Amino acid sequence: MKMKKSGLLLSGLATALLTMVAPTAQAAWALNMTQGISAISRNIYSLHMMVFWVCVVLAVLVFGVMIYSLVRFRKSQGAVPDTSLVHNTKAEIIWTAIPIAILVVMAVPATRTLIETDDATKTELTIRVTGYQWKWGYEYVGSGVTVLSTLDRDSNLARQLGSGIDPNSVPNYLLNVDHPLVVPADTKVRLLLSAQDVIHSWWVPALAIKKDAIPGFVNEAWFKIDAANTGLYRGQCAELCGRDHGFMPIVIDVRSKADFEAWLRTQKALQQPAEAAAPANAAPAGAAPASAANAAAAVRAAPARS
Amino acid sequence: MAYTETADAHDHHDHPPAGIWRWLSTTNHKDIGTLYLVFSCIMFFVGGLMAMVIRLELFKPGMQFVDPAFFNSMTTVHALAMIFGAVMPAWVGLANWMIPLQVGAPDMALPRMNNFSFWLLPFAFTLLLIGFFVPGGAPAGGWTLYPPLVLQGGDSFPMAIFAIHLMGASSIMGAINVIVTIMNMRAPGITLLRMPLFVWTWLITAYLLILVMPVLAGSVTMLLTDHFFGTSFFSASGGGDPVMFQHIFWFFGHPEVYILILPAFGIVSEVIPTFSRKPLFGYEAMVYATASIAFLSFIVWAHHMFTVGMPLAGELFFMLSTMLIAIPTGVKVFNWTATMWRGSLSFEPPMLFALAFLFLFTIGGFSGLMLAIAPADFQYQDTYFVVAHFHYVLVPGAIFGIMAGVYYWLPKWTGHMYSQALGKWHFWLSAIFVNVLFFPQHFLGLAGMPRRIPDYATQFADWNMVSSLGGFGFGLSQLLFPILIWKCIRGGEKAPNQVWEGAHGLEWEVPSPAPYHTWQDPPTPAQIAHGAEH
What we know:
The complex is a heterodimer. Chain A is an alpha+beta fold.
């Protein structure tokens, strides 16, 4: 009887392992996390895989012994209990010491990666990220360019209760925004995260960054995307933030350094008159330039890389 | 033994009042245990119904059935109902029934407080559930109650806070009762290191409860004053700190998860030896491992907050301290395995549930180890990977532990054997569907699906459908449980004193069903020797 369940479990695990080899990051039936588009995200991915394999090996050993006991020591097969086996100092020391050694082996690379993620020095560009119920605001520090990023119109129509629109007919359903965050590749970018109302969390799996945006606090994160990895990458708010928590996605549009500079110059030119007319009002400030940014974004009319 | 005559002699002139008054006024540990267990079962189905709504809405992409705000209420109240309404009262119910029987005490030490601590619960949960019918709807800010979001709640906000106060008061009284009973009312000869593991794990759990429930009460009181009395404990604009709430909450919340699981360790430590016909391997190591886990539970809380923006030193400390938990937990798993080694195993329903616990809780332990790795947790935090992890430790962990306990002791309570076939059906359906329900959630989380969302991108559709089907199957198969219990109460083969061949312990020295009063006279040395497990 027991065999059956364990068999089920193992075959499930085997299927999982098998499919993990295939690089199907965002596809249906996906099983594993993305390797991402930066050195840090790849470090985190390999850390994840290392701990996963350690767990798999331990599971095979521990479950193996359990299953062996279940089969070998059945009363129905005439097993006689050895009631004197209640203590064995040597075994107990071994199965305390080995896990300690394994933990140390895991802790070293984990600590190294953690220290790396924490090093937000020498950044070349700073972007302020502000969470609102339920959209994201971005401000390129220094240039004054702002972007307000909300769920795209098609997704928003389709996601209404009883809309009658098939989500499968909407490209990048719930993962598309009107104005993505445009960022340069091959540049160390610093994010300063905060929120206006409640706590949000800014998460882009491809960057392996998830950082809470907290009202009254400024959190820091950084990324440096490989030069080759231009394109669109998607994420979502990861901290419950009220009714429409599920409907404030994040899209980053990674461009080459030169393309980004050009984009920023255009945006600055477009937004300057607006800023002069309606000075320093954080939340609505994005609203006016948004339409301008929209025009710029429309040029790139991005079919999602997903 | 000579037990039966003395018990009968007491029973003749001491029977409970009839009707509802018996249950309202009872100070009998068995009656109160029954009340707790019945209440827990009701809340299990109330919370389960909410889980069904969640899985129904998530069956396919697009919003089909409920408003997102109502969906948030579902996840919030599902968690509160399951944690505070189903699992904790089930443990207190089992403690009430079994601790006096197992330590040879005539009742709990503080019987009137025992009655009060139970009867607070129906009021607490009425207050919580009425929230669905007041302006603003039921609490929808998550069971973790993070401000500032929770402060946006409607009229149900103060009701939920008051409900949590009542639950906390009830838990603290229950815990005091358990500690006083174990410390003062053990029969002569039952030394601390001769107590059954269920008593040990409950003793440690009770200390955890006393230490952390006041912390929860304090934090929710601060929320209340922030909302109504102009304080700004958690509001940055008034000089407060929203992150401080999370630290305080998880200082309660992490020990709380051990409150939910430690008694299950105790039950599994009784069931596996019984059906392996062999004493528990490494009894003392088990006690010390439980105590170590309890200690560690106080210094790991911020691993729930790795993305909150802590300094590097904080992240490192909480990562390393969390990894340490793997060591005593590993000792427990190895000891249970060694208990089965060279045993003589049979697979009655309590053993089946204990074995499923052993396998599936271990899977939850592995994902817990992965979650401890702070940089990797940046990817796991607040995704379905976390949902899968804590449901693995709470459903096939805590709840299968409760079921193992109920299947183990039910004949002792009712005096009847239950249908083993029905019990096995319940087990196999639960064990299969719980994996169909929760295993795919690991994949969803890794593929990038956040938790607590009512709708999702289409690439998550396949596994969500599988998970929902598993959820409906799991929910339906739970209906077998009350049916089996009801049939067992109504009749069945007469259960002997020692229900299971390999069982040891004082509870098997009294008749089945256990008389209304037991151990009026302490157990004799012969009974203690006969019941001794080690």
